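ARCHIVE CARD
Drawer: 12
Card no.: 0347
Subject: one protein chain, sequence and derived structure
Cross-reference: see card 0346
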Amino acid sequence: MKSSYIYILPTFIFLFFMFQPFSYCGATENSECFECHSDEALERVESEGMKAGIFVNEYKFKNSVHNINSVACIDCHADITELNYDLEVPHSSNLAPVDCGACHEDEAEAYENSVHKKAGGKGISIPCYACHDYHYVRPLEGYTVTERENEFCLKCHDPNKFHDWLPQKETHFDHVECAVCHAPDAPRHIHLRFYDLVENAYLESDEILAALNTDHENFLKLLDTNKNLIIEVDEFEKMVFLLRQSNIRVTFRGELLSEMEPVIHHINRGEAKRECETCHLPTSPFFEAVTIVLDNEDGRISHYEVERRVLETYYVNHFYVIGGTRVRLLDRIGLVLLLGGVSVVLVHLSVRVVTAPLRRRKKEKKDEFTA
């Protein structure tokens, strides 16, 4: 009889737990969170009595920088340790605020002494997600000036109210990111964007690669014939030629952008650069870093360094800085025309001087004949 209990007892325990409600599970997968948060109607009532949507677009989240880097929901919402599906809300409805600085320490340190952080002392709260959104943070390296301004600065600021001293404001706003001046310690680069003159539209990365019959891995290999990892002027012209063979008449529009370094968050009143010569000199360091940026399918960004002299070619327009991006060939043509004009005048004067005695004698004979 004792031996039969040995087999019956484990079977009984197994069946007992098998038919018990499975109430708890560790929340380790994002898919578990989306079982609820993929519902567009999902919302919660805040303490002020207002309703706030807590729907998360799964497709947009998958393309976010956090998901690309395998950041799980509970990595940010760290106070969720388990889910109880027997409850209407399977976790606490009052979660602690997400501490972005736990991962982004350098960014948090730079932000701590910024004008935006200091605004908190005036009763204004500007947390990270006020600019970066909650769940859809994308890699910003590929953003255009307009996209960066619309996504961040222009949410709160009207630049037209504070830049009366700035000549050609609209040109600066279109081609120079706000942080270039307002975060002066951040490194910068010029981003060249492909523009199709036939379609009058910017080209996407996949269109460029398809036209060149290559991919991200082989893009630089195709152009960089001397293997120095820099697209030089002749290699740049080769790329333009290859695109024209695919019936794409391309030009390049330049933008001056800040690098996505932590120091970009350190913005304070009175620190913005206002000296025009900071940019408008041929030797300006702002033009040393020139890149082509292509975005990958997974959302990551690839930078390809371009020789600075590319800015002096016909292929870069809508980005002219006096003395900084002069087309040297035009200078040479202008010099030839100027020298040609001066030469014509000098030759004409020389001929007049040399032939003066002949013309004088001819005039004297004419006078004698008429007398």
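Annotation on reverse: The chain has three domains: 22-119, 138-326, 331-370. DSSP finds 16 helices and ten strands in the chain.
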